[in-house]
Amino acid sequence: MQNKLKIINDPVHGFIKIPHEILFDIIEHPYFQRLRRIGQTGLLNLIFPGATHTRFHHALGAMHLMFTALETLKQKGVKISEEEEKGAMLAILMHDIGHGPFSHALESMLMDDWHHENLSLLLMNRLNDQFKGELSVAIEMFQGKYHRKFFNQLISSQLDVDRLDYLKRDSFFTGVSEGSINTQRIISMMNVCEEGELVIDAKGVYSIENFLTARMFMYWQVYYHKTSALAEFLLVKILERAKHLVSLGVDLPATENLKYFLYRGKSAATDEDVERFTQLDDNDVIQAMKNWQNSDDFVLSYWCRCVTQRNLPKTIISSHSFDPQFIEEKIKKTNEYFGIDNGSELVHEIKRKLLPYNTEKQPIYLLQKSGEKIRLEDSQDQLLSGLMVNKTTRFILTFPRDISHTIS
Amino acid sequence: MQNKLKIINDPVHGFIKIPHEILFDIIEHPYFQRLRRIGQTGLLNLIFPGATHTRFHHALGAMHLMFTALETLKQKGVKISEEEEKGAMLAILMHDIGHGPFSHALESMLMDDWHHENLSLLLMNRLNDQFKGELSVAIEMFQGKYHRKFFNQLISSQLDVDRLDYLKRDSFFTGVSEGSINTQRIISMMNVCEEGELVIDAKGVYSIENFLTARMFMYWQVYYHKTSALAEFLLVKILERAKHLVSLGVDLPATENLKYFLYRGKSAATDEDVERFTQLDDNDVIQAMKNWQNSDDFVLSYWCRCVTQRNLPKTIISSHSFDPQFIEEKIKKTNEYFGIDNGSELVHEIKRKLLPYNTEKQPIYLLQKSGEKIRLEDSQDQLLSGLMVNKTTRFILTFPRDISHTIS
Amino acid sequence: MQNKLKIINDPVHGFIKIPHEILFDIIEHPYFQRLRRIGQTGLLNLIFPGATHTRFHHALGAMHLMFTALETLKQKGVKISEEEEKGAMLAILMHDIGHGPFSHALESMLMDDWHHENLSLLLMNRLNDQFKGELSVAIEMFQGKYHRKFFNQLISSQLDVDRLDYLKRDSFFTGVSEGSINTQRIISMMNVCEEGELVIDAKGVYSIENFLTARMFMYWQVYYHKTSALAEFLLVKILERAKHLVSLGVDLPATENLKYFLYRGKSAATDEDVERFTQLDDNDVIQAMKNWQNSDDFVLSYWCRCVTQRNLPKTIISSHSFDPQFIEEKIKKTNEYFGIDNGSELVHEIKRKLLPYNTEKQPIYLLQKSGEKIRLEDSQDQLLSGLMVNKTTRFILTFPRDISHTIS
Amino acid sequence: MQNKLKIINDPVHGFIKIPHEILFDIIEHPYFQRLRRIGQTGLLNLIFPGATHTRFHHALGAMHLMFTALETLKQKGVKISEEEEKGAMLAILMHDIGHGPFSHALESMLMDDWHHENLSLLLMNRLNDQFKGELSVAIEMFQGKYHRKFFNQLISSQLDVDRLDYLKRDSFFTGVSEGSINTQRIISMMNVCEEGELVIDAKGVYSIENFLTARMFMYWQVYYHKTSALAEFLLVKILERAKHLVSLGVDLPATENLKYFLYRGKSAATDEDVERFTQLDDNDVIQAMKNWQNSDDFVLSYWCRCVTQRNLPKTIISSHSFDPQFIEEKIKKTNEYFGIDNGSELVHEIKRKLLPYNTEKQPIYLLQKSGEKIRLEDSQDQLLSGLMVNKTTRFILTFPRDISHTIS
């Protein structure tokens, strides 16, 4: 058992301690080890070559921040039992356990209507059976059913340790310093108010605003970067196309498990579905795309070559939707250039939108020196929060690079 | 001469190379060496103990960024002669050479109406005489008289290498990560447009916006932090008080040079003024405050003890001006507590304001792929710039800590 | 073409510029893009979860350091033509292009006697044909045939930019700070002596010694960490076992290209070999191991489960070879535990050795102020170099974890 | 009281928490606030301009590391009472409280035979009186009289938190990355053995060896850098000279407190000595040197100009003592050049020596998995420790720069 209280190297947070045996057991489980083979940011490494980090590492990092947050709260006088500590750490450790390859892109693709959070919950319940109920508190916290609300807010809210870890981690591995946040500072400002909700000590207001702007920059500079958006979009189209071809009777090479999902129709999830799902990872999809480069289907092979050889289509970004006539023209040129008639398959408008700070759902609260709890945007110290409450939308038009020479 | 092409360690930028002999000669000059004894951020180290860095180091850092910026521009095809490179590097190296001890706080205190930029120019001209005109181009660039405008814009504008260095450096030494900016990225996005003005490549828009928000956070979190504002305010009051006492015939211990300025009345600057000024530094003022702790004047000794022993008065911050009646009450309590009748000397409202992005004077321009130059706030990619165009003001009320126990 | 002069984000070095069009063309080539799918440190991420970085990124990083090194040398007066700069940058960019999946572990496994450097050269020559001889200088430099020796020394020596990048990069991604080196400082100390060889300015002596100790720590703490050594060893055994089973007529699932190499006997390399090799990457091997977990062969399935589920065998490390009787005992217990008779397949002694500083082959030279060139270990300033000239060897014994409970 | 549990920004360790009220009270005390005006590394900023950090900040940093170390030990099952925690943190907070201006250079200069540790103890006892015995445990621990030895070893040994902080801090502020150590890692490896002594978990062996090499590099690259050694040497000579002149009846301008010590003869320390000592800081000495540039004494004014204007004499470094004849020649040239006859005052050989790892006094112990405690140098894993057990000595010859032109 002493052996299980390991320390794991993390270039982002330094060292990650595993203070409870059960955490180690979950980490060792094949369901969790699978996350080693699922990238945290999908195809983003095509644009930011350092972004090869995994969901495995993110989950450990978030668990570490949870530990730090709970330590901070205890030092401020919040009572937290060992069972609650274990529960909260387990919940955040497993919060992404239901992620499949290249989710978010593919999650509804492989299993209709299955959101990764449902799958996470399903797998947690399975693990809970195996570990004889030891995960029950964790599951309650994950679902927001635990009576002390701040545990769930640390797991899932506008300022949870999930976001704290992924922003810092993605910023670190992409090298996009605009997204860097000071997790240590933000956590040191966390507190719990009388009603048992997560709040931020008022003097942390600028760190929170910096967190909100950093997140916004990460979205537009990284996650919604026009080429990132394109790569994710292509992935979805590739799997859609493959499912479509398969439904037409075309035989596409793929691993057994991936094939299973390509052939699977719309229906309720079975035990086999879940079992096979837990054996899928990014390799199945990457390998399929490598193979499908040689498919007889022009569209499938075109897209797979685009991704595999990183020879990506052209994109234009705009804050307005593109003129349908302009799009029509691109399709026409595509048809002409390739001598095809389904050029519309290769020209698409992709839409991305972001609300930097949502004041409607789970606003962020500041704890005044007086003990009063106020909304971030109502603080007289706030500088930007009140300005970041509107959605921004961007439109990205993609079309074959080859035809762009003849246009602009 | 080989000996002069030194490398200087800088924890902020890594290594600073000195590529021209004349730069080394200026650095060696006593006028410049004096900057080693002038802190970059005055009394801020009372709040941020790491902030002990000097104007000497900042000037070297800014020179380094100028070098990097010019290298970048050359790689983009902008022709820059060796004479221009030397000029620009000299100008930024010397841009703060006229700073006295604890400026900005004290600059108009020691010599009436003398702004440090005037003094910098005056000292540059003196050095130019000594170096037989070698600094003429630098001085033209510093004054904005050189025909290629971007050189002056690199020295002094809303996005100059001065700001780039001091933001990064102050963030580094204070440990306030919210102010950290990516100077390497911002400089790599610099360009010169057809009209010879400094512009930013359009894809750098988020780095610029991040720079603007980082700067705003540094102002409110560091420079205008209520205790920082207070410390700077006290310094001014101390020197004012000392001048006042001296004018009444009180003998205050001070170094010879500081005494000279305490006694000096309002009049045009003489050669002696300048000579003595270049021998003053922070030590003269710190030493004086140490001594004046024992002054017979209650107010002077009170303030000097506050600063020297870091036993600072109480402050409250607000986004509105304080109610005169509330202030009056504080004065009354002060009088009562100390048994004095000039309690109004110890109760003050300090005001700080900031315009994060000034669209009127020297707006920041983006260079579109099309070659067109547009204002940052007009870009369709901008997320925050258009929102940061209004002044924010804060009011800080200070009064003796001792009386606060009886109030809140 | 303007479009090709891109900037790539690198969390390690900041930003990587691509200053010549031909470099961009090579990066775009499928041979090079393949390196995105080949990890820099193989299975090390089983021990250091951050170590998911790729050979693709390393090659770009090394190219960046080459650029920096050449800029430094030019500033010191070394004449370097544009053709030489391109050549050196191309050579280092392509120096690892011949790496296959999980080399160094597998390089001699897939293709007998084929060292990755031979393959790199072969692929460079193919590319040179495609690019009509534009890579000729690069290839000369890579082979050490170019008349100015320092170019080859920058590519391949005890202090080349390859080592500088991989040490810094591996230290960064593993989070093992003991291996961190100051590449900027080391490069700033590089020079070329009269004979045209790479030397280090004498005052850089401690940076070089720090580089040597950092490298030594990285070997024993990371690359030769007992679990790292084990993982690499298992990989080799898995492929050996698979080849063996295939030769016995067993049908093992694998991608077409991997299968090709499993079946390929010993013979001279053909064009098909090369073509197929350039389509292999880590995914082929990972996918195979995932499949082979279910193999009927006990040994193969055992090892593949070990690696895929990170349920690794036990290891003991020692500075002496293990007692044969002790090993024999482990084998006996393994046979007993599993009820098998080939337990010797699961018990192995792995050996790792390192010579921190090799004074025989390519010693490192310091350039004294006097212009004299001396060996690092002969410098009167050196502190450790003279002590680091002997090989250290470690022995690692591995055996099934399950039997360890019955022993210690 | 809530108000006292502050957080202090530290660019080195992130944030420093003050978990006990008494710590805050000590920090507020004028004895401790004085450390804000005493540089951690004396005149080193003449060579490394970033090194302007103070003993105040170092003491806080060491206190923070003590807190982290104790947390780690508790997590490993070592029982530590709150009183012990307070004691250990107080002891390390105050360990340098007896430092005067520019100690170590000046400590025996101002008050004969007074080592700063004696003064620290004396001041601690005074504070203990003021705080009614609350510091008693701290003082016991500081003196090594507390029954659990590891507390004293954390305060003062070959691997104490004092060294951990100053190495990391000095490396950070100088920018000399070769001295960077991973304090977080080293502390996470700390443990207490059965005998109650501080030990290091065996797997931390390389982190310890890296600490030893980093320390060695910091000594030779920074603290004993020939110009650093020179600057410190000059400071001593300046004060010696001033005392000498004063003893001859020369009137030298100085602050009242500094004057007191210049005039003070050899005798036992009085209460007045202590009182005045606690009012001295770097400013007194810097201001004196600024004034003494104009002294009538050639030697004093020469040295003070050297330091104040950073126009330092020439130095040569060697691993052997210099030939007396060579030195004689320098003296002769000095006499000739300046037309003086006491040139021997300006030519000196300075000696610096370092023992990287002392196996005699307080060796470092590793805790084997078996529970056995072995000496670092006896571990079979150690790579360098056994090689670093001998003293290295360097000799630095200094002489006026002006005469060097006539020689080499």
Molecular structure report:
The structure is a homotetramer of 408-residue chains. Chain A folds into 2 domains: 2-94 and 135-222 and 357-389, Hypothetical protein af1432 (Orthogonal Bundle); 226-353 and 396-404, Growth Hormone, Chain: A (Up-down Bundle), CATH 1.20.1250.30. The first copy, chain A, has a 4-stranded mixed β-sheet. Chain A has a 3-stranded antiparallel β-sheet with strand order 5-9-6, sandwiched between helices. A two-stranded antiparallel sheet of chain A has the order 1-2. Chain A has helices at 21-28, 30-33, 55-75, 82-93, 107-110, 116-130, 136-143, 149-155, 161-174, 183-188, 205-223, 226-247, 256-263, 271-277, 282-292, 298-308, 324-338, 401-404; strands at residues 7-10, 14-17, 190-192, 198-201, 314-318, 348-354, 365-367, 373-375, 392-399. In chain A, 48% of the residues lie in helices and 10% in strands. By secondary structure, chain A is of the alpha+beta class. The first copy, chain A, has 18 helices and 9 strands. Chain A is globular and about 70 Å long. Chains in contact: A-B, A-C, A-D, B-C, B-D, C-D. The A-C interface holds A 8-12, 14-15, 28, 30, 33, 36-37, 45-46, 48-50, 52-54, 56-57, 60, 172-176, 255, 279, 283-284, 286-287, 290-291, 308-311 and C 8-12, 14-15, 28, 30, 33, 36-37, 45-46, 48-50, 52-54, 56-57, 60, 172-176, 255, 279, 283-284, 286-287, 290-291, 308-311. Chains A, B, C, D: Residues 51-176 form the HD/PDEase domain. Chains A, B, C, D: GO terms for molecular function: dGTPase activity.
